[in-house]
Amino acid sequence: MASEIPALPQSYAPGNDSVFSDRSGFYSMDTNVPGLSKLILNKLNMKDYGEYRAAVEGKAQGITFRNYKELFQKMEETFKFCTSCNKLPEHLTEGQTLKRCVKCLNVYYCTKDCQKKDWPQHKKVCKMLRLVAIDRLVEWLMFTGDLPFSTEKWSKPVAEVKNWEDWLPMQGDQTSCLDAILSGANMTSLWKNVSRPRPDDSDLRQSLWRIQSEFLSRVLTVGMGIRHFSLDPYAKPLTIHVAGASHNETMGARVTDYDELNKMFPGHQGIEILMVGPEVVDGPIMRPPLRAFGPKHHVYISAHKGLYHQFWEDVVEKEEGAKPDLVIGFHPGFHANQGLIEGWLPTLLLLRDYNIPCLFTMYSEMELKCSLQILLELEIQIRDSGPNPFTSQKPEQVQSCPNKIPVYCNSHYICFQGILPEEDVEEPGPNN
User: Which of 33, 272, 295, 351 stands the most exposed, by the fewest C-beta atoms within 10 Å?
Assistant: First the structure.
């Protein structure tokens, strides 16, 4: 265990007038989109989202945590508010303390009366929130390198792997791999330094799989997009852009993160995954896009920090990078508030007018319906939409409203391309 966690540096913040300011990330949960709460920043003495990212990445400067125990304690404090009345620790009367639900170990109450009042709502999600509480700690192993664990070669053609039920049997017995992680030094250090008992091994194995599924969900969703639009990676190299990429896709990213595509399309002509977004995190994937493909049978990953439509003007139009064969958007969230749709509007119109095949994912059916409405108002042709067969299996809690039903990353998707045919565009009536 490290004796000292490095301190916080100056962080990137797009600015208060930007549609991509930290307000979108932190306040989006009020529209049913998971996000980090301002409470987290206050408790960790951080001024913005970028400082939080820097701390998780181990690039901190300024504020120090003496050890991992202190770090985990501070993280737990970000969840300490009364789920019933929203009272914070500093607002408690003398002698009062916030006590955790003993079943889920995830929510807190300031009094027994608050707990009793909240129980009719909390009992609906208590068991699920217990899994959330385990996962948010085990997820730390993504940054230690224990996760994701390696996967097996595909024993079926890609056309026959339509969902998790088709993918899992190809993986064989993962017991030895999972047991190695369970008995590893990082797992031991984790539960030594958190303020809760270590779950049993069966719970931890399931947690490891849920976190693994979230990682793989992005890759398999890209593969689904390739298949949906009948792109042929054996006929020519493919360029795939991830528009609106953020810390979720790029924090701790490795150049091997999309190698599952090699197993989906063995012997392909080359695939480049280019992540573009204003909150792309610096790391080994921060390099220019490819001008020409290198050796075949490889997946190349690169990243560009900035808005997608500006990237198009600065890079694609100047032929510094290839036009995309497919654009992916993981949880763009443009339904959440007017600022987000204004920020996404130039990109959506660009993708429409250039007739680019696109696949965007959503957290929930509600977000799917709202996003469909926005795209139809922009006269964008919807090719397909619905539940994603490769949705993450890891439940996501809306942190400021713990008793909301958890949602799942990439749980729904929309495929769209080009502009609606004229016959599908409603003409204004005489009374409009």
Answer: 295
